[in-house]
């Protein structure tokens, strides 16, 4: 039986595990239940939480990915969205979790891809990713979407979004700008605008099909001003959070959610949702 970790208040856990889509579901363009798992892995030396990981810097990224693999195999999602990872982290990952599809979305520093580094000392390019049990259909340009967001706090870390269009719906991820106390109002305005752009572009790319957006949106629903921006972003959609800044926003119906403490390998819980 699946160990659900911590359940969010008032939400029932759906016990049956989610499997691969049936042929009928593919023909209809949607599966009855899709389980999505969202994780921010804090896996670059640039991330402030990097210093809190135990052990020497040379092994922190590898051990974080090993813990993520354990969680993915335990939860058995159909789709995984990942933030704060490096492109090298994906090497062999989909094979270890027995997935067939992956897309990586690059964050930019100025006009160039943001290279992982800091105390990590490498790892490829910094960004986000989506992993799916099924491979992406071809041509990839039709079923994959990537966009540097229009509104940015600065050019030091230009945030992006990315999507994969699957038979059961379009899944997207984004990691929007963090809201810090310094220059709080501007940061809040930027992050709110980014969230709205993510939803607008997800809808445009998906067309009339189902949408699932999962990511670290850096909007805390327990803070009234951030809640207002989140409400603007999610208007017309169903949404749930991990109790913090990670969210799943969808046109589907929530049938259960849960989260798991991933410390000391990241300062964010894993957050999963069953969607019907």
Automatic annotation (TrEMBL):
Question: Which keywords fit this entry according to its UniProt record?
Answer: Endonuclease, Hydrolase, Nuclease, Signal
What positions does the domain Endonuclease/exonuclease/phosphatase occupy? 52-225
Q: Name one Pfam family in it.
A: Exo_endo_phos
> Can the keyword Hydrolase be found in this entry's annotation?
yes
| Record's keyword annotation contains Hydrolase | yes
Q: Gene3D superfamilies in the record, alphabetically?
A: Endonuclease/exonuclease/phosphatase (3.60.10.10)
Recorded GO MF terms: endonuclease activity
Signal peptide (from-to): 1-25
The identity of this protein, by name, is: Endonuclease/exonuclease/phosphatase family protein
Organism of this sequence: Nonomuraea typhae
């Amino acid at each position: 039986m699946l160990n659900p970790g911590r359940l969010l208040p008032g939400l029932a856990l759906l016990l049956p595990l989610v499997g691969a889509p049936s042929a009928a579901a593919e023909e209809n363009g949607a599966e009855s239940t899709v389980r999505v798992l969202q994780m921010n892995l804090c896996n670059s030396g640039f991330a402030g939480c990097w210093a809190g990981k135990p052990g020497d810097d040379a092994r922190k990224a590898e051990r974080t990915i090993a813990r993520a693999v354990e969680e993915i195999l335990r939860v058995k999602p159909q789709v995984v969205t990942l933030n704060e990872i490096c492109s090298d982290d994906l090497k062999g990952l989909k094979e270890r979790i027995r997935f067939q599809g992956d897309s990586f979305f690059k964050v930019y520093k100025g006009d160039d891809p943001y290279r992982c580094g800091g105390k990590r000392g490498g790892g490829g390019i910094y960004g986000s990713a989506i992993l799916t049990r099924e491979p992406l259909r071809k041509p990839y340009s039709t079923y994959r979407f990537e966009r540097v967001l229009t509104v940015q706090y600065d050019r030091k870390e230009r945030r992006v979004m990315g999507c994969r269009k699957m038979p059961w719906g379009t899944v997207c991820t984004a990691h929007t700008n963090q809201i810090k106390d310094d220059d709080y109002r501007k940061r809040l305005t930027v992050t709110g605008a980014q969230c709205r752009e993510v939803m607008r572009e997800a809808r445009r790319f998906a067309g009339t099909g189902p949408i699932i957006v999962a990511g670290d949106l850096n909007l805390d629903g327990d803070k009234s001003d951030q809640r207002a921006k989140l409400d603007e972003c999610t208007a017309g959609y169903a949404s749930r959070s991990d109790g913090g800044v990670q969210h799943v926003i969808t046109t589907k119906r929530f049938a259960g959610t849960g989260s798991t403490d991933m410390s000391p390998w990241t300062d964010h819980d894993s957050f999963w949702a069953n969607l019907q």
